[in-house]
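Hello forum,

I keep getting stuck at the same step: I have a sequence, I want structure tokens, and every attempt I make locally crashes halfway through. Rather than fight my setup again tonight, could one of you with a working pipeline run this one for me? It's a single chain of 303 residues.
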Amino acid sequence: MNWKSEIKAAGDRIAGYAQVTPVMKSDIPGYPIEMKLEHLQHTGSFKARGAFNTLLSSDVPSAGVVAASGGNHGAAAAYAARALGYPAKIFVPELAGPSKIALIEQTGADLSVVSGEYANALTTARAHEKETGAMQIHAYDAPATVAGQGTCFAEWDAQGLRADTVLIAVGGGGLIAGALAWFQGARKVVAVEPETSCALNAALKANKPVDVTVSGIAANALGARQIGQICFGLAQDVTSVLVPDAAISKAQKALWQSHRLLVEPAGATALAALTSGRYQPEPGERVAVLICGGNVAPDPFAS
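Reply #2:
Ran it on my machine without issues. Output:
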């Protein structure tokens, strides 16, 4: 697949639907870094890019769309469907939590909460797809999703990204797959995962996607049981770093104290690799961090 061409086409397609998110400089780790604030995207995460690209490049059936999600993808799929006039059925696990469930409900989508984790919601969504003919918007392992997420990095390049290395949090792998598909070795990509939700790290060690046990403070965003096939195919040369929950919490706090940026644990996970020292740049290495999600729980403004 010509990923560069697909991502450029996706960027043209979603222009006017997805936000152009801002970039900024920071010295939180004790040295200068670049950050892109993708938590300011519609519904609080990068997921809107893939959702819009999927819908705008497809013939959507009368049954509408269906999506399984740990929370952020479901909200984005529902938001995009509403914006384009399609009915949406969203399945999330209980693990999503009240804050992300409420966010999806605000879109007006038909929402079902299932027991267990993301994998359980995906199984139920696939059954709904088969029964109704609705179109599945996969959270991370579909070409249109990956191309949509890749627009984030094409956009960042256009905004003047100077970094040699970009750190990205990984769940199912759609976001980092988009980065790898766009950069194609022009920049080093570092995959950052929680120690207790590490599907890509496990796959790289096993040389194939394998099931992992999912837990921890970022599990409702980064808690994929198995890495996506597209990501695994693109990620053979990435640097993989694991961070503990305590480091993620500390990075969240640093973003708030230094810049008044309120992000969810997944949104601070990539930064945690720097603030914890789990990734240590070489002298002169220019580093950037993608801040991917802002749906904190509990919602600080919920009544």
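The CA atoms of residues 26 and 259 lie 8 Å apart. If your local run keeps crashing, start a new thread with the error log.
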